[in-house]
Amino acid sequence: MQNFSRRLIEWQKQHGRHGLPWQQTRDPYAVWLSEIMLQQTQVASVIPYYQRFIAHFPDIAALAAASQDEVLAHWSGLGYYARGRNLHHAAQLVVAQHGGVFPSDSESVVALPGIGRSTAAAILVFSFGQRRAILDGNVKRVLARCFGIAGYPGVKAVENRLWQQAEALLPESGIETYTQALMDLGATLCARKPSCAACPLASGCVAYNEKRVAELPEPKPRKLLPQKETAMLVLLRQGEVYLEKRPPTGIWGGMWSLPEAPVMEVDALARLDMEGREGKPLPELQHTFTHFRLRIVPRVFEVTALQPGVREPGGLWITPADAMGAALPKPVKDILKGLA
């Protein structure tokens, strides 16, 4: 086990990722932000969002004082918007409960919205040098292959075995380099399509030596995602489009979006009091969420009865150009771009 950590540390120093914008600081806020953005998102995609976000919200106090609209506008396009809402709420809790100072004990960190055991450990390692084990998706893959741990890692019993292994492997020193090495190895060499010949752990890797690399870790049992559909209504009046704010929780919670209606009922809108006319066709979109796929059918209606610039309950009229700076889900941005 000591050899495991030593090999990883030596490999990271020569071949690991260095110079990422969040690696040159021990500021817990900067580390926390990077860890949240890196959840389910690749480093190359995160970097520009991270740089813009931290330039606009340079510290916890600035983030806590911002409106949710402002925060989500800077998160727009990064996906998994609950991360942005949780980040904002957590910043407000840090200000209210910890005097604006990010806590350094695991219990308090895990109690913050959007932070689980592994994310908390990573923050504490990189911010305070604490000796803690991480177990994100990449690390699960490394450990499952290296130690031949069978089963789907999402199963509690398998996850518990992986946690035990992760705790047992912790080195006595060099915890930051070791933790970064685990992340880097899982993201580069020990990826879904691995490069075993270059791996520093190959000689002792169970999966490699038993030719089980393609089998480990075992994939999640396949389940067909249900298909749903909705019509998004692009209501236009004298160059403005109507947007409404979505509920604070759920899909695209707290973001600005287009009104929706069942696809089969869209034609009936032409007979409503707003005197719309038959919706003009725009290309359909397919958007995949974690638990379902959504077919989006955009329809454009010219509205004559409502006045531009008038705020409606829960919504507003705005030019498409101005709307692009708001917190919009990606499909809505794509639809508004298509209007041009």
Overall description:
- This protein has 340 residues and is of the alpha+beta class.
- It has 2 domains: 2-209, Endonuclease III, domain 1, CATH 1.10.340.30; 227-338, Nucleoside Triphosphate Pyrophosphohydrolase (Alpha-Beta Complex), CATH 3.90.79.10.
- The protein is built from 14 helices and 8 strands.
- It has helices at 2-15, 28-37, 43-56, 60-65, 68-75, 82-98, 106-110, 117-128, 137-146, 156-168, 175-187, 206-209, 320-323, 330-338, and strands at 227-237, 240-245, 256-257, 260-261, 280-281, 285-288, 293-302, 315-318.
- Strands 1, 2, 3, 4, 5, 6, 7 and 8 form an 8-stranded mixed β-sheet that branches.
Question: What does this entry show, briefly?
Answer:
This protein has 14 helices and eight strands. It is 41% helix and 12% strand. Strand 6 and strand 7 form a beta hairpin.
Descriptive terms for the model:
alpha+beta, Nucleoside Triphosphate Pyrophosphohydrolase, 340 residues, 41% helix, 12% strand, eight-stranded mixed β-sheet, Endonuclease III, domain 1, globular, 14 helices, 2 domains
Count of DSSP H/I helices: 14
| Low-confidence residue ranges | 270-279
Output the structural class: alpha+beta
**CATH second-level architecture of the largest domain:** Orthogonal Bundle
Helix content: 40-55%
Give the N-to-C terminal Cα separation.
60 Å
The portion of residues forming beta strands comes to 5-15%
Q: Provide the CATH top-level class of the largest domain.
A: Mainly Alpha
CATH topology of the largest domain: Endonuclease III, domain 1
Q: How many independent structural domains?
A: 2
CATH H-level superfamily title of the largest domain: Hypothetical protein, domain 2
Q: How would you characterize the largest beta sheet?
A: 8 strands, mixed
